[in-house]
Amino acid sequence: MLQALKTMVKTTVHRPVTIMYPYEKEWIPDNYRGRPGLRFDRCIGCGICERACPTKCITIVEVEDDDGKIVRRPQVYVGRCMMCGYCAEYCPVDAMTTTPDYELAEFTRKDLIYDPRRLAFEGTTEMMEVHLEEHLQSNLDKGIEKPTAFFDTDRPVLDDNLCIGCSRCAKVCPTSAIEMVVVGQNAKGRDIKRPKLDSTKCVCCERCVIECPKDALEIEEVL
To answer: pTM for the complete prediction?
Structure first.
């Protein structure tokens, strides 16, 4: 009883530490890692966010853009999302962001599926972007301490002996960084084509590696 009386006097004189939620809410910074957000027009549909997600709550789906064209965009099952922000970290164009949105309760699991349009967050700021940078050992050996974005390091390389010139890599590249060029002719007089990579456009999303039917492409890691 004495302890209860002390608590009553203390909370009467001083403001209690609790707040009247939901009528009152704590201040949330812009870089708070709530549910993922999506800038629909920035997204290139590379699928890096889907592969980086540790809980596999992101699925790349086909939707219509503002012009009625079918494009690939991420869909998030928020019920499984652990709000780690990896999707925003690995997005090469900062299309995926974190948001301060944490009130996500729904009555059914289906309502927890956020399609690409629903992922949009009004009032997205630069603080909601998460930039992932790496320090390369080769740069440190040269005295260069400036970090490098992960998508500016590794690049796909071609095993010419395995390539069949099907052009699938060029078709699936979301940034049009691969162009098929003629490198010669075969015994029947037909053109032999091989992929040519534009490193300035490549974001190392690995779609060309994944889609290659002969495993002729692989990612060469820069140390």
So the answer is: 0.81
Looking at the structure of the chain, the number of domains it has is 2
CA 135 to chain centre: 20
d(CA 75, CA 73): 7
Token couple for 165: 């010139």
Q: Domain range for residue 69? A: 29-131
Contact 123, 73 (CB under 8 A): no
Query: How far is Cα 36 from Cα 99, in angstroms, rounded to an integer?
Result: 6
Residue 214 lies in a domain: yes
For the chain, 223 residues long, give each residue's pLDDT as a single digit of tens: 899 888 888 877 776 677 888 888 888 888 899 999 999 999 999 999 999 999 999 999 999 999 999 999 999 999 999 999 999 999 999 999 999 999 999 999 999 999 999 999 998 999 999 988 888 888 888 888 888 887 888 899 999 999 999 999 999 999 999 999 999 988 888 899 999 999 999 999 999 999 999 999 999 887 7
Structural domain includes residue 23:
no
What backbone phi and psi angles, to 5 degrees, belong to 49?
-60, -40
